[in-house]
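New here. Invent one.

***
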Amino acid sequence: MTLAARPTLPPNCFLTLNVSPELLLTESIREIWRDQGNLSGLVVELTEQTPIDAYLELEPDLNQLRAAGALIAVDDAGAGYAGLRHLLALRPSLIKIDRQLIQDVDRDEAKRALISRLGTFASRVDAWILAEGVERVEELDAPAALGVPLVQGYCPARPGPAWEALDLDIAHRPASKPPVTHRGIIRDIVEPATTATSAATAAAAFDGNPALESVVLMGEYMRPVAVLDPSAAALGMVSPGMRVNLDTPLSEALARSMTRTQDSPFDPLLVTDNAGRFAGIARMERMITALAAADT
């Protein structure tokens, strides 16, 4: 039984248990909760297989679980039945963002905007928010920059033995990713990028990942040289990219970008720290969105 694993939980961890809403109303499930007594460290995750039509019918059972120390989670927020009215009615302690919203979130401003709004709602109702289905490092960094504190998926860890240790670099990455501060500087919207030391290795990276949009060509001492797209990498064409500092104002960076030649005004900018070392890239759409948000 899953609940039998609770005593073996490592410190500061919780156990999630998927439960279909109609099962909460059965006497056999109620008996299991009573036998467990204190339910601290347990998250009861309401699955989406069955729509919830009568919130009042569930309320006594949910309140009993909360009184025993359990937390209530809503699965797949942003998809299926877990719409806004369900979040309002259930007031979960944990909101799990659907994989469809997390997939390619690093390249989709609309998804970032929706996740940001979900995060605002979660903070108002004293809930945690969790990103499901994180499979790439970029999909790990993007929610972290939006203030999402919890993630799950193949990027942090694949299925394995119970309580297997995580890769420390991956485990510490969300906490080390500075949240967006909305100060209107490049640091707020910088993001990681694939790097290569030659046009040939960049071309190989594009061949290995058809979804890859750009690769940063690196020089000596961690200095970025250029942003390559697939065609430039294939032809070995390298045009020096525009660099900006992490603390460059967004308005200044955009103004400088528009002075570039007609074939490159919308290329990502190369971002460096105060020592000139590569810190990431800044995409035009992220810069424009951040400036627009700052003006509202």
